[in-house]
Specification:
seven-stranded mixed beta sheet, elongated, 13% strand, alpha+beta, 16 helices, 3 domains, DNA Binding (I), subunit A, 375 residues
């Protein structure tokens, strides 16, 4: 295992001191500990705890149960960045700022302000074990990755964010990684996942990298020191606009398609939206087309990507019946073959209107089928 060169010092921080100066704004970020602790550096994730986990943190604090260590890195100016413990920290700060209520023994929802003096004191006096880490940035990021990989709590994109920090990443996260961010507003019908888990950012990077293996890391490394993420944002908008102009009727099958990859390949083409819509209606109603999402790439390719439609295959029963009817004779080469040596074939191809029905089935040998498919 790779050694991480980090100087570590253990301290104890009370909740009272932690929440002092707590602020959470989109523009300025999240700060606590008298404004000296950056709770959400660029490499950190957005807040993702659900209510159950968040409430468990507060219940643990109120009950005096150990929350485990948190890790802060110290900067040259004496300020800190939170390496590990962001979710616990924000849960505590949010409750103590009356952002949500809790049901304790009474079973009655209570904001922090509603607690009696002793309950408040118990929470404010609670001591958190903090490990202060000092070292060069690259070593601190290695520790951040080590801590979070061990806990299996970060996505691949979140781990990449830990490596390629800087102004570009801050700008990219503002557009792609916030709840109800602009990327979500214009692309939520087409993308899967959630912005706060970096799914939207990862998708945009995957698209602009044209799906290249390792392309996301390569792109981030090339643009890490850019002053903004305008190139990525403009590309993403171009993709979304192109989809809307080309396919004017939204269907649920459009969600989750790698539209950026299709834009990269077919975006320069000329398409009649009305003609495409009529073709989509026909294909959506075709029972032989089992992969409805594939309709869009099939049409963009000019009908060359029939494999994307996953045309319905003949059943084993249908093929066996046809084999017995033919007596095992391939109608193309005229030779006899065992059943296992033959395959079901559309007499009239699907592309020419042939359906996957017994009347349109013939059994031909594998050799003839390969030659037929290559014509």
């Amino acid at each position: 295992m790779e050694k991480i060169n980090i100087e570590q010092t253990k301290i104890s921080v009370s909740v009272r001191d932690l929440i002092n100066g707590y602020t959470d704004t989109e523009e300025m970020g999240v700060y606590a500990f008298g404004g000296k602790l950056n709770v959400r550096p660029a490499y950190q994730r957005e807040f993702v705890y659900d209510d159950k986990k968040r409430n468990l943190v507060i219940d643990s604090v109120a009950s005096g149960i150990d929350l485990g260590k948190m890790y802060w890195s110290i900067n040259d100016d004496g300020t800190y960045e939170l390496l590990d413990g962001q979710q616990r920290t924000i849960s505590i700060c949010q409750y103590c700022s009356n952002a949500f209520s809790m049901e304790f023994e009474s079973g009655v929802p209570q904001l922090f302000v509603n607690l009696d003096a002793q309950q408040k004191k118990n929470i404010l006096d609670y001591q958190i074990d903090v490990v202060i880490c000092k070292g060069v940035t690259s070593e601190k990021l290695k520790l951040f990755q080590r801590l979070n990989v061990a806990g299996a709590v970060l996505t691949n994109q979140e781990l990449l964010n830990a490596v390629y920090t800087g102004r570009w990443l801050t700008e990219a996260k503002r557009r792609f990684s916030k709840t109800n961010c602009v990327a979500y507003q214009i692309g939520s019908k087409l993308l899967t996942g959630t912005p706060i888990r970096q799914d939207y950012l990862e998708t945009a990077l995957y698209w602009i990298s044209d799906g290249e293996k390792g392309g996301i890391a390569k792109y981030m490394s090339q643009h890490q020191n850019d002053v903004n993420a305008l190139e990525l944002w403009q590309y993403f908008r171009n993709v979304i606009d192109w989809v809307g102009d080309t396919f004017r009727t939204y269907r649920r099958e459009m969600k989750g398609i790698d539209w950026g990859l299709l834009y990269n390949q077919y975006g320069g083409g000329s398409y009649d939206a009305d003609v495409l819509e009529a073709q989509i209606k026909t294909l959506m109603a075709d029972d032989d087309v089992t992969a409805k999402k594939g309709i869009y790439e099939f049409l963009l390719s000019g009908g060359k990507m029939e494999s994307k439609l996953n045309i319905r295959a003949f059943t084993e029963s249908q093929k066996r019946t046809a084999y017995e009817k033919q007596g095992g004779i391939c109608p193309i080469c005229g030779e006899h073959h065992e059943y296992e040596e033959m395959e079901g074939d559309h007499i009239t191809p699907w592309s020419q209107g042939g359906k996957t029905v017994p009347e349109n089935l013939q059994m031909i040998c594998k050799s003839c089928n390969r030659k037929k498919s290559n014509k």
